[in-house]
C-alpha cells in the first residue's frame, strides 16, 4: 500500500495544498526509499518518509506523533519527493468526480423517466413516503416553497 492509499482523503487534499504552497522545506533524500523534510505550518513539523514501508513514516505533529498515521505533512513530503504522484492523484480525483457526475446525470434521467410513467395515486404515495422517511428539510422545504401555512 502506498502513502496516498493509506492516508485519509482529507490528509491527501491538505497534503496536496501544502505541497503546492511550498510548505515543504528542506526536503532531503536519505536513500532511494527514505526522505526527511520540514513542513511549515504554525510551527515546523519534522517528517520522516519511508516509501517502502509507509507505516514507518513519522511526523511530530499532534495527529501523527507516536502513532502510525499518515498525516497531511507526510503526504506533502511524499508529493514533494514525487511530483508525478501529485499529478496522478489530482488526475485520478478529477476522473472520479467526472464519473460520479455522469452517474448522477444518468440516475436523474432514469428517475424522471420513471416519474413520468407513474399514476397520480402512486405519485401521492411516493411523496408521502419521502416525507415520512426522508430528511426533515425535504418536508420543511416543500412547505416553504408551496407557501403552506
Ligand atoms: Zn504531521
Walk across the major sheet and give the strand order: 1-2-3-4
What helical percentage do the residues reach?
55-70%
The tally of structural domains comes to 2
Number of strands: 4
Uncertain runs are none
State the end-to-end distance.
57 Å
What is the gyration radius calculated from CA atoms?
24 Å
**Series of H and E elements:** HHEEEEHHHH
- Overall residue-averaged pLDDT value: 94
Beta fraction: 5-15%
Question: What structural class do helix, strand and pairing data support?
Answer: alpha+beta
What does this entry look like structurally?
The chain folds into 2 domains: 3-83, no CATH class; 89-145. Strands 1-2-3-4 form a 4-stranded antiparallel sheet. The relative contact order is 0.12. The chain is 57% helix and 15% strand. α2 (9-20) crosses α3 and α3 crosses α4 (83-117). It is elongated, with a radius of gyration of 24 Å. It has helices at residues 3-6, 9-20, 72-81, 83-117, 120-133, 136-145, and strands spanning 24-29, 34-40, 44-50, 58-59. The longest helix is centred in the last third of the chain and has 35 residues, at 83-117. The termini are far apart. It contains 6 helices and 4 strands, in the order ααββββαααα. It is an alpha+beta fold. The model has no long low-confidence stretch (mean pLDDT 94). Zinc ion binds next to loops.
SSE arrangement:
Elements (H helix, E strand, L loop, with lengths): L2 H4 L2 H12 L3 E6 L4 E7 L3 E7 L7 E2 L12 H10 L1 H35 L2 H14 L2 H10 L4
Antiparallel strand pairs: 1-2, 2-3, 3-4
Helix pairs in contact: 2-3, 3-4
Amino acid at each position: 500500500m502506498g502513502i496516498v492509499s493509506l492516508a485519509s482523503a482529507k490528509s491527501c487534499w491538505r497534503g496536496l495544498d501544502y505541497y503546492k504552497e511550498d510548505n515543504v522545506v528542506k526536503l532531503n533524500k536519505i536513500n532511494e526509499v527514505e526522505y526527511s523534510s520540514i513542513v511549515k505550518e504554525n510551527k515546523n513539523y519534522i517528517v520522516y518518509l519511508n516509501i517502502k514501508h509507509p507505516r514507518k513514516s513519522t511526523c511530530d505533529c499532534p495527529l501523527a506523533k507516536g502513532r502510525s498515521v499518515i498525516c497531511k505533512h507526510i503526504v506533502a513530503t511524499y508529493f514533494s519527493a514525487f511530483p508525478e504522484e501529485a499529478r496522478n492523484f489530482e488526475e485520478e480525483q478529477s476522473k472520479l468526480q467526472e464519473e460520479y457526475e455522469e452517474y448522477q446525470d444518468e440516475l436523474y434521467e432514469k428517475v424522471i423517466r420513471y416519474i413520468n410513467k407513474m399514476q397520480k395515486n402512486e405519485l401521492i404515495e411516493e411523496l408521502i413516503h419521502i416525507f415520512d422517511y426522508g430528511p426533515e428539510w425535504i418536508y420543511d422545504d416543500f412547505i416553504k416553497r408551496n407557501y403552506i401555512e
